[in-house]
Amino acid sequence: MNKKNVLPKNFLWGGATAANQYEGAWNVDRKRASTADMMTSGTHAIPRRITKQLEEGVNYPSHEAVDFYHNYKGDIKLFAEMGFKCFRMSIAWSRIFPNADDETPNEEGLKFYDKVFAELKKYNIEPIVTISHYEAPFALTEKFNGWEGRAAIDCYIRYCETIFTRYKNVVKYWITFNEINSLLVPAGAYLAGALLVDDSGIFNNTEVDSVKMRFQALHHQFVASAKAVHLAHQINPDFKIGCMINYSCGYASTCKPEDVAMAQKQDQINNMLCSDVQVRGEYPTFAKRYFEEKKIKIYMAEEDEEILKKGCVDFYTFSYYKSHVVGTRPEGDETQGNVFGGFRNPYLKASDWGWQIDPIGLRYVLNHIYDRYRIPIMIVENGLGAVDVIEEDGSINDIYRIKFLKEHIEQMKEAVYDGVNLIGYTAWGCIDLVSASTGEMEKRYGFIYVDKNNEGKGTLKRSKKKSFYWYKKVIESNGEELN
Ligand code: BG6
Fold first, then answer.
1. What is the Å distance from ligand 1's center to 90 Cα?
2. Residue 313 and residue 278: Cα distance in Å, rounded?
């Protein structure tokens, strides 16, 4: 039985990043553009744009990001100093297959990750690798309209086979797609590498959206994910392959049965539809009704059902940042969120970006997921995006971030005591990196500050924040020391 305030001995503490927000070097060593490299920076109020060609004088934040590519040794050393047991990162697919369907992989790209994994091994840090984190080669978009085209499955599997084989002895944990359920909302079209007719402002709920196209792309990702799981186990039976869900926690706004039913429906569609397919190997019954009512017709090949059945993931991972309210609410009471928004909750405060802070929601969600799937769970993203101020003496006293993380870790421990089989926790953006939703630099999550501003200017110098020392203590004490 789990004990109060005690986490499992080998608990995987660490941090999380994604290549397109972290690596930079977007066209170095034969890498070509990814979908993320075609996205301009935006702000809280101005949505990012996708351009089919790169525009002169425009800031594309992923191009340099914070240049992990040339700073990986120093960064990993800092992670090791904090005591990281694991490090979640992603491989930039366009570094390995720059044209999406190349006959052979790009050796220079592969070599870069050889070096990164060797460096992590030096410090005994376990890599957790996301295969596709919000990006694909832009060539996949040009050739097949991204994941709308079934050909994307073969490209992805060739990429998987290459990296599974190459890193067979150095990586154990793999995640097939970051936040696969983001394809459920209009912004998800671009995350699927699919261009819409009107591609202005992806994070606006643009009216020009093809629901059918998104669900087709999602189906292709399900098939690709299942095939990848199957292949991975053939290449190395010790591999552990996970799904990754953007968990959208929505409470009923009142105890009115209609509100409760609406919250349940939203939970089924937003959260469970994708993980049911990936964990249980088939579409849930409620999805069939949903597709019928929304007139969504997905083309499925004859063999797909069998492929999905054979490709169930080994563990479940998710991101958790906020919660919202679902149901009867006056207009104008909406709040923003991580891809999924909702209504404001009068009992919660929000971050400067309008994401409502709800540590107890994390315990609720962990119990809910574990009750349903009974497989190991990892929290692979959690954190507070905030503006940090450098004091005159150079220190950064991010006590608001410490408070956020502390309260979430406390609830995570409660969930473990409840019986949830939680195997790890990686704080999002453990080093400052580019924000996915806005493209800003100054929406920071890190324990490590990076000198770069929203205009893309700065020395890229790394400095430790107060939270750096705090997290080190948390890891050292396996989560017992949170003050
Ligand atoms: C998750 C993504 O949705 O949220 C990350 O997987 C992203 O890529 C993170 O960065 C935080 O969102 P944002 O928009 O604040 O960067």
1. 13
2. 6
